[in-house]
Amino acid sequence: MSGPFTKEQMDMLYGKAADPVYYMEQQGNGFVYAWVNPVCMEIFGIDLTGRTVEECMPRELAHEIHKQYRIAIKRNERHRYRDYSLFSDRGTAMETELTPFRHEGVQYVLAITRDVTEQKKIEEDYLFYQSLVQNSVDPMLMISADFTILDMNPAYEKTFGVERQEWIGRNYDDIPHDKQKFFETGKLLLENSRSTHKASSIFLNRVKSDGREAKFSASYSLIKEDGIIRAFHVVFRELTNELLLKHELKRTENILESYKDALNYAALVLIWDISGMIEFANDNFKKLTGFDSSELTGMNILSIGQAIMPEQQLAHLQSVLKKGEIWRGQVRSLKKNGQPFWVDATIIPLFDVEGRIYQMLSILFDITDRKEMEEQLHHMAYHDPLTNLPNRRMMVKHFREMAAYSRRMGDQVAVLYIDGDNFKEINDQHGHEIGDEFIHQFARALERSIRKRDVAARIGGDEFLILLPGISANDSRSQIESIISRIQQTLKDGWIIDGQQFSPTCSIGSALYPEDGSEFEELIQKADHALYEAKKKGGGIVCFHGEE
Fold first, then answer.
1. Res 196: pLDDT
2. 401 and 538: one domain?
3. Which of 208, 227, 242 is the last residue of a domain?
4. Alpha carbon distance 114, 22 (integer Å)
5. Do 223 and 339 reside in the same domain of the chain?
6. Per mean pLDDT, which range of 243-247, 311-315, 331-335, 492-496 is the poorest?
7. How confident is the model at residue 91, as a pLDDT?
8. DSSP string spanning 506-545?
9. Is residue 124 part of a domain?
10. Burial profile 324-343: b = 16 or more Cβ within 10 angstroms, e = fewer
11. Which residue ranges does UniProt annotate as crossing the membrane (predicted)?
């Protein structure tokens, strides 16, 4: 297995993952499976390792996979796409997250696929529900448990000749007496539904806006929270064929009930108003975060769990929602006890009959385990496993940041290339176990010797790098020598392993940015050359670039 990760590392991270994980290596114009987890083998019935995508997938699907991989590589950032064809025979929708990265000139892609069938169903059901209510030709009402009219759709206004603004917020007792007779039958049914907790349908006569009396069916669905009925959703339909209409009403009821059940079962749900004040949180949210719904009601969404979201992501979220579009992304927040958690969030703006946004519906899925595995993988990719110091790839990132700051401040960055003297003898005389502990203690000694803003890294068996930012151009030599002196003294003090004292020495080569070079690799080469000169003079010697 090639690349920056060993098979053992991938097995440890993703071997027990419930989702399929593919570690791909680009070869020419195609991609080869470098490693897959056991779930993939169960799905495909063969070991994909070493095979190309074309060998394992139908032609059209392989073409689509190549297309998505290239999008991720071109953008050089994580990329998600949904695939409905690979498991279409199971009626399953899958979402794959691609993470591209390069190592020693070779392109790799880490692909993690998860089942989003339930989430896709929720999104589709919600869109259907929104369309059903706002665009339906059937009159619809939303009535609270205390018989206050909460909302009505345009079809209700048109059919019965009423104006929404005159009716919203009015209780049954506030309706004019000459109108109450039209609601009496429905009120009795709602009272019965409240006691039995069962949805019902009835037939009743109502006067339409043209003055003609017509027969309607009215279907009442219960809206519950924590087992308590909070409101009723009422759908009217003018009767033309009563038997057919009963069947259609039952189907509509089932769709609405299925949507609500699926939403509450599969996801964490939050609803807040346009100002950000939380109006509803389901039981799943409490199970994950520890916040009770009574605590959340009235809180601002931005303060819940001290949500952690970069300003750029927050600005993008707000701009998307203001346009009335659905926003999707990953958000890190804190539980009530202070522990962090991650959610995959879908936030949907809800519109009133005038087309204005009045609420936000947030559907959240817990992805904490997956994010922790990703963070562990990222740490392993940029750190030395024996010493936990940064590796060469991480030092490139640190150098770019330090160089940019140095250009703004007008100072310098020193590069120290350190090689332990006679380290091979440690392994030869004491064995590899003590040799590994010796390297670990050597790394800790370097960390104790440098300043907080300095960074030490291990780049080879007994080779280390140290970056020293903020070096004054007028006094660079003495500043660097002061830090090197601390390193040498700390090594001289040494440490004890298995009852034996070790006090090693090291040889050091140094180069300066930007005086000796402007690129990281150039400075490393010059510091390495200075180290070579120091090694020729014997152990414990320091040489600066340009010295003979």
1. 62
2. yes
3. 242
4. 12
5. no
6. 243-247
7. 56
8. EEEEEEEETTT-SSHHHHHHHHHHHHHHHHHH-TT-EEET
9. no
10. eeebeebbebeeeeeeebbb
11. none
